[in-house]
Please model this.
Amino acid sequence: MIRGKIFYKGKFIEAGIEVEDGKIKRIGKLVKGRELDGIILPAGIDVHVHFRDFRESHKETIESGSISALYGGICLVVDQPNTNPPIENFEIYEERVKKAEKESYVDYALNLALTKRNLEKINETISKISEKYFLPAVGEVFIQHNDENFQIDYGELGKVKHKLTIHAEDPKFVQKGNPNFLYRKREAEIVAIKKCLEIGNFHFCHISTKDAAEMISKSKSTFEFSPHHLLLSEEDYSRIGYLINVNPPLRKKYEVEWLLKNFCLADVLASDHAPHLVEEKKEGVSGFPGVEVMYPIFVYLASKGLISFKELVEKIAINPAKIFGFQDYGEIEEKKYANFVVFDLKKVETIRASKLHSLCGWTPYEGFKAVFPEEVYIRGEEVKKSETKLGKSLRR
Ligand code: NCD
Ligand code: ZN
Model:
């Protein structure tokens, strides 16, 4: 059906892909098809997005977030449960998944929250959801949060009988204040990670320090880097001003450079797409949008040799599928879903918020270079040019 330079088993080969019933039937040098310019990579999986919706539909909706994902070459998202109201029980979990089934442009999975209100019944709730839906994880669990209901003690982590993803910052090292990088210390992350690793194995969200990255790499736990901790630093305060707050905060330039150089340490690249309006950012809220620009910026960086395509594909597609158990996703491989993205490396663009699809209307990457997808295929169908809503929720 298509032919081109395909990323297959760790390297690029010239071949064709034959699709049947949404899955890859055959990959081979003799398979005929429409010749595509550029490179063909597995579609991305973003395991950390906040698509808001419900009472925060002014910031983002499942529809606007998922079309952003589609334009960013992401075919599957894992939405986080710190919504308003939060995803704390079976009923609201089901309500949101059903909403996504109607409204999402890309495949959709949803994490369950662990809160003060639901922790007594968490294992029952996990079982009930898991009978019907594919529950990637409980998380992101907050060790520190301004909302008392979301803040969970270390002692509770060991009780949950499911994969946990953790936002690790220790409350003792977090003070309120703007810009937040002056008040939320590196130690907050390092201490929290140390304590969690003594309790068990987890998946850690958006790691921002060298010490934490090294500690987790030596353990059986896994972790994400988010694009902003690899590309932006405290120095960006002079450029983006009050937009700068994100949790964990941006770090000093030398640490950011170290993290990008040691990209190999992370298991996963995830955006932590956390949109807020500009007016809300002025009040000091934390979070950056990122789902639409993550893959495009990193494809550009790979084209310049700053990272390798092999590492990028591992962290944005292969490992997320393996770690969270998304069967048939993550690789261009026979019997897997025909989910892939075509990038033309000659078409370097400059990022402009006005061209992006998030309702938040801004980006911390204004002016950055990126290679956006030309075509995006979900289960063998081109869905970007056609803006087809092919997203499905992950069920049992
Ligand atoms: C996230 C949000 O706004 O939901 N904010 C952020 O700064 N990363 C929550 C979170 O992931 O901590
Ligand atoms: Zn977080």
Q: What stands out?
A: Residues 140, 167, 205-206, 247, 272 surround zinc ion (ligand 2) (CB under 6 Å). The two ends are 30 Å apart (CA to CA). Residues 43-329 form a domain with the TIM Barrel fold (CATH 3.20.20.140). The longest helix spans residues 309-324.
